[in-house]
Amino acid sequence: MSMEISSDLRDLYQEMLLEHYRHPRNYGAPAEPRASAVGDNPLCGDHVRVFVDVADGRLRDLKFEGTGCAISTASASMMTEALKGKTVEEARRLFEGFHALLAGDATAAAAKEPELEPLACLGGVRAYPMRVKCATLAWHTLRAALEDAASSAPNKTVSTE
């Protein structure tokens, strides 16, 4: 059963996206980055670097910087708000839930993972496959940064080509 989004809700979602694009949360590099990864979407021109500080299995700090379209920047901003303070396992679970949100029914994904509810406004990009890559770039980059944090390997680079 497909859920029709009201125009009021669509307007609210658009405003939330624009707010995060204009005033991104957790933007900038930390003074002492612990681990990071770089993500690029050459088809769109999005470029993001995600910084993560993991302590005792938790994302103690999570920041990003880069340039990109409104969807890419808003998604990175919303991701940092949703995941900061979560355990690495919770972050991985929400990563999978976010992918489900963009691939399927937004209502079902949000019901399964209530923490995804603030990200529901990004669910509409699933109707535009090229924009899904914009919305998921920071998330894939975070996953690489978490691998970097776990392995103490050199910084990772992710591409969504």
Blueprint (SSEs and pairs):
Blueprint: H1 7-22, E1 35-41, E2 46-55, E3 58-67, H2 70-83, H3 88-103, H4 106-112, H5 129-151, E4 156-159
Parallel strand pairs: 1-4
Antiparallel strand pairs: 1-2, 2-3
Rg measurement, Å: 15 Å
Count of separate structural domains: 1
| N/C terminus separation | 32 Å
CATH hierarchy, class = Alpha Beta
Q: For the report, how would you describe the main beta sheet?
A: 4 strands, mixed
How is this structure best described in words?
This protein has about 160 residues and is of the alpha+beta class. It has one domain: Sufe protein. Chain: A (Alpha-Beta Complex). The protein has 5 helices and 4 strands. The chain has a 4-stranded mixed beta sheet with strand order 3-2-1-4, covered by helices on one side. A hairpin with a 2-residue loop joins strand 2 and strand 3. Helix 3 runs antiparallel to helix 5. The model has no long low-confidence stretch (mean pLDDT about 85).
